[in-house]
Amino acid sequence: MTQRNFDRAGLWVLCLAGFVSMASMRLCDPLLPAFGTSFGVSTGEAALTVSSFAVAYGLCLLLFGPLGDRFGKFRVISIAVLGCTLGNALAGLTKSWEWLIAARCLSGAAAAGIVPLTLAWVGDSVDYQRRQAVLGQVMFATLLGVSFGQWMAGALADAGSWRLAFLLLAAAFFATGTTMVAMSGKRRHGAGAADGGAAYGKKVSIVLSSKWACWILFLTIVEGATAFASMTFIPSFMHEAHGLSLKAAAGIAALFAAGGLLYAALAGHMVAMLGERGLTLAGASMLGICLMLMTVLPSWHWAMPACVIAGMGFTMLHATLQTHATQMAPSVRGTAAALFGSCIFLGQSIGVVAASAIVDSHGTALVFLLCGPVILTIGIGFSRSIGARNKLLLGPVQGCLKQG
To answer: Which of 5, 203, 273, 316 has the highest count of CB atoms within 10 angstroms of its CB?
Structure first.
């Protein structure tokens, strides 16, 4: 698809789907104390609502990637959005802790077909030179979803109506999904790749045959295990360490997304000013340092700018990883995006499970103190590897220019 006939209506509705998807994903972060009250579970046990979503999401990405390549990404996303309706409705109506976990698994399984395939759709539709800007629009929508989901859940939990948060999202998923199904019937749904119909194992092997792709996927797992796991416990930390209401704690955590939105608004200028290496190093430094500082802040007021800076730093790091992920294997972009997403949520599920054990035994602060230095290391390693890769790719070109 050329820039001349770029599907802007499709991008708009996909951004809406991403907004609702990310609201659903982060919805449970401020609800962990409320789950403890309603079901008699600890904070660590309540975090199963986060890790179960992440595990199901990561596993089902392995299915949605090839389906998107085979049947068309827009069509598969529309079906996934409708699937999220059922998961969120069940979560809002159930009276059983076990069924709540099952509902979150279902929600995660269906949501796996939304944002990663949207990234692959953008990769098929937009030239690499403009892709980071368009991906920034998608990220803007998803970050708004994170912020809205956390704030709404915290506000409704304080009002004693946390179930309503799930039911409202179910309605939003249904409205978005039916709109996409109607739009899907008017679109062609080719695989968009020469070997889009290849066997799944072959598609995965195409991606993993690249050492650079393997490096990107490894960094993504580590990022998921540290950055995403840390985000999960920010509302609980604010609630327990500073005695804030769930609504106020969720509001502070939502500033993490506000930092991402700030970067999205400035992305064009910052990419031009810092380049990919600078974005990676500065972003990891901002995120890692702010997480560690969170544990020693004398007042919750200081957590507000810390969350904004941390969110901006996370987005700078993640956007660069994400942009490279869209180019890992252009011929099977859906599968590559699915593997990228799987690694995010594999890392997140590992990180949340490990962090839950730490929270129950040593408190939330230790999670931030452990994750911060690892994130700094990711930034340094990724920045250096981008420089080495650029030097390797540009070397032959520079040699030809000198000979000319």
So the answer is: 316
